[in-house]
Amino acid sequence: MEAILLARLAEGGEQFKGEDPAEVLELEPDDAVVSVGPLRYDVMVASLPGDELLVRGKVGCEVVFRCARCAQSFTLEVTENPYVRSYELQDETESVDLTPDMREATLLAFPAYPVCKSECLGLCSKCGKDLNQGLCECVPEPDARWGGLDGLEI
User: Fold this and answer.
1) Partners of 48 in the β-ladder
2) Angle (CA) 32 39 74, round 5°
3) What does each C-alpha distance from 88 to 26, 55, 104, 142 come to in angstroms?
4) Vertex 90, ends 83 and 14: CA angle to 5°?
5) DSSP 8-state code for residue 108
6) Which residues pair with 20 in a beta bridge?
7) Are 106 and 60 in contact (CB under 8 A)?
8) d(Cα 111, Cα 107) in Å, to the nearest integer?
């Protein structure tokens, strides 16, 4: 997004809608998180009395994550809605660049533990089979935590 020129901003505020290339997210080349679409924004920018700029709307993008349970890739629309920011303006301020804050808001909206679906079963801890594809042949080990109580008579 180009910087907002304050001198050209309409008195009641203006709507800004558009896209920035995915590169503005500055994601490292990694197969766990890949941006597949542009950073989209739809924000209302208004100048408030007392030298303040208020930005409200939504920002987001489409991202491919690797599931934390089954390690399969999946696409997720990540949005920050509502996106609200306030900027204190100085007398010498001519423009405000919203891109760094939109980038930060989008990155902070990424899930910390991305899963492809809530009912994902994950991988077998012994053989590594994707349990979403069916059960494996592994026999679960008995839970030995209560073994000491097995010999007690009541």
Assistant:
1) 52
2) 30
3) 26, 12, 18, 62
4) 40
5) H
6) 39
7) yes
8) 9
Could you tell me which residues are beta bridge partners of residue 96? 4
For 19-66, what is the HEC assignment?
Answer: EECHHHHCCCCCCCEEECCCEEEEEEEEEECCCEEEEEEEEEEEEEEE
The pTM for the full model equals: 0.79
The residue type of 120 is C
Residue with tokens 């080990």: 141
pLDDT at 140 over 80: no
Token couple for 75? 């696409």
> Residue 83 CB: number of other CB atoms within 10 A?
21
CA distance 65 to 94: 39
CB of 58 within 8 A of CB of 84?
no
Among residues 123, 120, 152, 153, the alpha carbon closest in space to that of 136 is found at 123
The pLDDT tens digits of the residues spanning 81-123 come to 899 999 998 878 888 999 999 999 999 999 999 999 999 999 9
- At 28 the pLDDT is 79
Query: Rounded to an integer, what distance in angstroms lies between the CA atom of residue 17 and that of residue 2?
Result: 11
CB 86 within 8 A of CB 54: yes
Q: DSSP for 59-107?
A: EEEEEEEE-TTT--EEEEEEEEEEEEEEEEPPTT--EE--HHHHHHHHH
